[in-house]
């Protein structure tokens, strides 16, 4: 099963020295992250370290106070944020599907309203994308009638239907029953293999080890250590990372 | 005649009812519907604007919406209708002539908007912030996300309360008789009242009451039906709405602020 149809347009991603505070609470303190074109970075780290916040500054759901985000070497901070978000797909822990629409509508809404595709074309793109995550037969049901794993695959399809150049995943499998995790991780691994540039916040260390090109360990608002999975998992330099790994592995 | 049968005659004089019936059907009912339906449409549109202004990040939208709602919910409907219907009558005279309907509908709409605005606001605020984030992550602007994703969900959740407000409107439409109606403009209540006044018998008014029930009771059941459907359909987090129909009642909006 190949999830991605057109990832030829993947870009490289760089996060440079991003700072962000919620009021007095300094959450990001100079976070850096590099993902090569078509690469996959897995972000790991303790709860509250700022992983979700970092993802949200990449597609500017949250505007960083300082620092820069670059796609193919060009800063995106000057771009129109709505246009930028069409280029960056995002998948959430709780799926965030629209419950009052059918699965198909969830996919076609942005295609029709943002990409301005005519109805029949939007439906065709949506059906193709659903087929790629194995859910073409669920096009006409409401999200609530699907399992969590199916809902998350729909959410991935919804993001992919817009042909993003980068995909962000925020603990995409954390809300799923254990037996449903594999299916979603499989879709994500396929996408990575197909050459999508991805940033994956995850607690699935097995996935990070097998799929990631880079594993980045976040702690207290910075990326403390980053490198190839083997280096991070087998030869961690930083004591905090070693302690974290001893807890999760 | 014994007192009981006199009492019976006062309310259930079939001949008096039969006499009033044709006018009720051909004049009163259409007029009541015209008033209630146009006020429902205008009131819902205004209510939606108030709801969106009420959750706006701009104080200059939030504030006026707040004041408006307090004023129009706080005044007796009869006072509002008189103030607008009589107070603006000279202006109306120049624009559309002596017809009291436009100002009557306006007054009814302005009152309904205050309640409907609160209902919609409660519904919109009950939609999880994650829905807005999901829509914005796809590239929708705040306005598009509200219009396409948040508002439709919010409104759905408060449909029962909205229908309750339509019931209130049907009843309140009787108050436009304050504004002076010529024969062809009379609605159900006024026709019943006129017959009652000329005959000294309340049967025609009772008939008018039956017509109101004919309109409102099915709506009441529609509310219950919608409510049940919403509850069964999916586990929606329906906001706790406690909207009373009299001007003293205030809805109790709950839920998160979707920004
Ligand atoms: N909108 C917000 N307003 C205020 N504080 C926030 C907001 N979002 C996150 N925070 C705070 O920022 C810190 C980092 O949160 P974040 O969600 O980025 O952590 P995380 O690494 O994703 O944690 P988890 O693994 O639990 O998801 C936390 O202390 C959190 O309370
Ligand atoms: Mg998080």
What does this structure look like?
Chain A: It is a peripheral membrane protein. Chain A: This is Amino acid ABC transporter ATP-binding protein, PAAT family. Chain A: GO terms for molecular function: ABC-type amino acid transporter activity; ATP binding; ATP hydrolysis activity. Chain A: It is found in: Cell membrane. Chain A: It comes from Micromonospora chaiyaphumensis. Chain B: Belongs to the binding-protein-dependent transport system permease family. HisMQ subfamily. The complex is a heterodimer of chains A (about 250) and B (about 260). In chain A, about 35% of the residues lie in helices and about 25% in strands. With about 250 residues, chain A is α/β, with parallel strands linked by helices. Chain A has a domain at about 15-100 and about 165-250: 3-Layer(aba) Sandwich (Rossmann fold). In chain A, the strands form two sheets. A six-stranded mixed sheet of chain A has the order 6-7-8-3-9-10, with helices on both faces. Chain A has a four-stranded antiparallel sheet with strand order 2-1-4-5, covered by helices on one side. In chain A, helix 3 crosses helix 4 (about 120-130), helix 3 packs parallel to helix 5 (about 150-160) and helix 5 (about 150-160) packs parallel to helix 6. The longest helix of chain A is centred in the last third of the chain and has 16 residues, at about 180-195. Chain A is globular. With about 260 residues, chain B is an all-alpha fold. Chain B has one domain: MetI-like (MetI-like fold), CATH 1.10.3720.10. Helix content of chain B is about 75%, strand content about 0%. Chain B is built from eleven helices and no strands. Chain B has helices at about 5-10, 15-55, 60-75, 75-85, 90-95, 100-125, 130-140, 140-155, 160-170, 190-200, 205-235. In chain B, helix 2 runs antiparallel to helix 3 and helix 4 (about 75-85) crosses helix 6. The model of chain B is unreliable at about 235-259 (pLDDT under 50). Classes of the chains: A alpha/beta (about 250), B mainly alpha (about 260). At the A-B interface, helix 2 and helix 3 of A face helix 7 and helix 8 of B.
């Amino acid at each position: 099963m190949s999830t991605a149809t057109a990832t030829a347009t993947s870009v490289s991603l760089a996060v440079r020295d991003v700072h962000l505070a919620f009021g007095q609470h300094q959450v990001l303190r100079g976070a850096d992250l590099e993902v090569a074109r078509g690469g996959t970075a897995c972000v790991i780290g303790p709860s509250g370290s700022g992983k979700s916040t970092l993802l949200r500054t990449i597609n500017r759901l949250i505007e960083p106070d300082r620092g820069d985000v670059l796609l193919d070497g060009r800063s995106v901070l000057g771009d129109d944020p709505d246009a930028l978000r069409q280029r960056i797909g995002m998948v959430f822990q709780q799926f965030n599907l629209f419950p009052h629409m059918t699965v198909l509508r969830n996919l076609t809404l942005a295609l029709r309203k943002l990409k301005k595709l005519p109805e029949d074309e939007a439906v065709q793109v949506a059906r193709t994308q659903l087929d790629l995550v194995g859910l073409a037969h669920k096009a006409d049901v409401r999200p609530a009638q699907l399992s969590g794993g199916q809902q998350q695959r729909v959410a991935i399809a919804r993001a992919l239907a817009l042909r993003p150049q980068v995909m962000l995943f925020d603990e995409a499998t954390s809300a799923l029953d254990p037996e449903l995790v594999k299916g979603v991780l499989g879709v994500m691994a396929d996408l990575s293999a197909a050459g999508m540039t991805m940033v994956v916040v995850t607690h699935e260390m097995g996935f990070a080890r097998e799929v990631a090109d880079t594993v980045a360990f976040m702690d207290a608002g910075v990326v403390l250590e980053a490198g190839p999975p083997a280096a991070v998992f087998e030869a961690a330099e930083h004591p905090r990372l070693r302690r974290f790994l001893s807890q999760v592995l | 005649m014994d007192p009981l049968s006199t009492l019976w005659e006062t309310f259930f004089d079939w001949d008096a009812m039969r006499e009033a019936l044709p006018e009720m059907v051909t004049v009163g009912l259409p007029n009541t519907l015209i008033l209630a339906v146009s006020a429902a449409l205008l009131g819902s549109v205004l209510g939606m604007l108030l709801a969106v202004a009420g959750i706006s990040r701009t104080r200059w939208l939030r504030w006026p919406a707040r004041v408006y709602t307090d004023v129009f919910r706080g005044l007796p409907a009869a006072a509002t209708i008189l103030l607008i219907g009589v107070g603006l009558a000279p202006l109306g005279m120049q624009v559309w002539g002596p017809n009291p309907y436009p100002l009557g509908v306006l007054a009814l709409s302005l009152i309904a908007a205050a309640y409907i605005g609160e209902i919609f606001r409660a519904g919109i605020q009950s939609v999880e912030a994650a829905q807005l984030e999901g829509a914005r992550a796809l590239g929708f602007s705040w306005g598009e996300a509200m219009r396409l994703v948040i508002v439709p969900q919010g409104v759905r959740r408060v449909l029962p309360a909205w229908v309750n407000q339509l019931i209130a409107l049907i009843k309140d439409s009787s108050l436009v008789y304050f504004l002076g109606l010529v024969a062809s403009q009379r609605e159900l209540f006024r026709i019943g009242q006129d017959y009652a006044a000329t005959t000294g018998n309340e049967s025609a008014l009772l008939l008018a009451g039956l017509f109101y029930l004919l309109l409102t009771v099915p709506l009441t059941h529609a509310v219950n039906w919608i409510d049940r459907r919403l509850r069964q359909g999916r586990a929606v987090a329906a906001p706790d709405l406690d909207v009373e129909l009299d001007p003293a009642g205030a809805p109790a909006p709950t839920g998160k602020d979707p920004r």
